[in-house]
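README: folding subset

This subset contains proteins for which both the sequence and a predicted structure token string are available. Records are stored as plain text. Below is the entry for Putative foldase protein PrsA (355 residues), shown exactly as it appears on disk.
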Amino acid sequence: MKRSVAILSSAVLVVALMTGCGGKAEEAKQDSKTPANQTDGSNQAANDPLVQFPKLTLPYAADQKAVIVEYQGGTVTGKEFEEFLRVINFMNPQQGTMIEMADSKSLKAFAREFTATKVLASRSDDAMKKESKELAEKTFEKIKTQYMSFLGKDEAQFNKLMDGQGVTKDMILNQMDLINQSINVMKKNIDDATLKQTYDQMDKASRTVASVRHILISTEKRTPEEALKISNDLEARLKKGEDFAKLATEFTDDPGSKQSGGLYENADVTQWVPEFKEASLTQKVGEVGPPVKTNFGYHIIKVENRKEKTFDEMKEQLRASSLEKAYDTFAKTELDKLITKFNIPQSKNDAPAKK
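--- output ---
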């Protein structure tokens, strides 16, 4: 789990849902391609939109009343843990895949995340609880709308989907409410003044986004000299007025931008390797620069636009980063001291014991 489930905001979960459902929808389309003369009824099953969302198969067995985690002030029961996993799958199908593949060590990580959410949520005040509950209601409607778009806007199908997933509206709202409460507790000490101080301390590159077209001529299967010659030839053609997007689509060795005509749009420049980042920061906007050498090969670069983001534009991004840091601090300094015992059921995905 690269990012803590505990601090995934409801807005992020909706985005994750869109991505995950899209992937599952595409898989379902591929699976539904059957010979035209097939008449055994499998076509009808494949075209059922609910097929895209199979019920989560838990990789373990545990009694609903069993205590999965013991911590100072409370416990996590088998029922709570299962509801947490099923709701996470419902809100983010990609997490569901991870759950089904989880070994006992990974299940422990999920249980630790849920325990963190419960502990943090228990520290919320009445105002936080009110806000969290209202946000959970709004977010449920957003998630419902996303699912309905895959289900032909059929509410009966949506209800059938929830039933098939083993979740209820109350169960989903409860989990989102806990997540929101845990976030609000951590947000308490992250005010705008603190975020502004962080913004002011950032270097220019960290605040800059740019839209950059490039053509990569890789040195993986050719010599640096060959790559440079091709790059110089392409630079000359571009400066004579040939279409950058067309040449990029034809010549670039970068699969990530090939279909977009070499374009990376409104990207944080700090994500790029140093030489590419430096060119994106210094090259004159609108002009094709000389080939830039990186470990990947030679890049012909054209910066289409570049701007330094304002504090208001970065505020929520900075808040999310601060939340992650706050959670990491909580996990390292408090959580493991509060947890007194794990009773994680054995996963069927565990590697066989060596004889």
